[in-house]
Amino acid sequence: TNLSFVTLLGSLRRNSYNAAIAQSLPELAPDDVSITPLGSIGDFPHYNQDLQDEGFPPTVLDMAKQIQAADGVIIVTPEYNYSIPGVLKNAIDWLSRVTPQPFSKKPVAIQTASPGLIGGARAQYHLRQSLVFLDAYVLNKPEAMISQVPSKVDPLTLSLTDAGTREFLSRQISALAELARTIKK
Ligand code: FNR
């Protein structure tokens, strides 16, 4: 059976390296797996329960629906100050209040990219912790931490050029597909 995954991007930056990674994922997926980007989380308001009580922003509800309908989510994000960017946490906080909660029992893979040497590893464990509360099925292995990312993407086309990283990410997508199929059974 075919699977459809969506990508959730944790950077709002125009020339984001993480966006470059996310953009390259569809071509790294197996033939029976489609990968489409979710919209930007940049226009979610700051989470405030008063706003929620007045009615969820349509962008939040749209994204929740897309996640609900997907067979899995790939979160691609930078590390900020040894954690996840505030905008990503804000998006997760909004999405977590929607009923049905879209991350519940959802297969999720995490990818982080950084110019640094450990590729955003520390952000991954903060992200995992929030996803425990949301009862997502976060893929354990392979972990995808992309270090020294400026040397691995083409700065003009913003596509992932490093062969080793392409091969590695394609293995992680296959592992997420296997997890998603196991959960579907
Ligand atoms: C960073 N950066 C960073 N990198 C890292 O590996 N660990 C970290 O803790 C941080 N902290 C951090 C905080 C803030 C506020 C900024 C703006 C940046 C550097 C970061 O990895 C780099 O800017 C990336 O290029 C961000 O990813 P995108 O936007 O290119 O996808």
Q: Poorly predicted ranges (pLDDT <50, ≥5 residues)?
A: none
Ligand names: ligand FNR
Integer-rounded radius of gyration? 16 Å
Helix content bin: 25-40%
Total helices: the number is 6
Number of DSSP E strands:
8
The biggest beta sheet is recorded as: 6 strands, parallel
Roughly what fraction of the amino acids lie in strands?
Answer: 15-25%
- Could you report the average pLDDT, rounded to the nearest whole number? 97
Counting helices, strands and paired strands, the structural category is: alpha/beta
Morphology call: globular
Oligomer: single chain
H and E string: EHEHHEHEHEEEEH
For the termini, the CA-CA separation is: 11 Å
Describe this structure in words.
The chain is an alpha/beta fold. Helix content is 39%, strand content 18%. It contains six helices and eight strands, in the order E-H-E-H-H-E-H-E-H-E-E-E-E-H. It has helices at residues 17-24, 49-54, 58-69, 86-96, 121-133, 163-184, and strands at 3-9, 33-37, 72-77, 107-113, 137-138, 144-146, 153-154, 159-160. Strands 1, 2, 3, 4, 5 and 6 form a six-stranded parallel β-sheet that branches. A two-stranded antiparallel ribbon has the order 7-8. The longest helix is centred in the last third of the chain and has 22 residues, at 163-184. The radius of gyration is 16 Å and the shape is globular. The structure holds ligand FNR. Residues 11, 13, 16-18, 78-82, 114-116, 120 line the site of ligand FNR. It comes from Acetobacter syzygii. InterPro entries: Flavoprotein-like_sf, FMN_Rdtase-like_dom, NAD(P)H-dep_reductase. One of its GO terms (molecular function) is oxidoreductase activity.
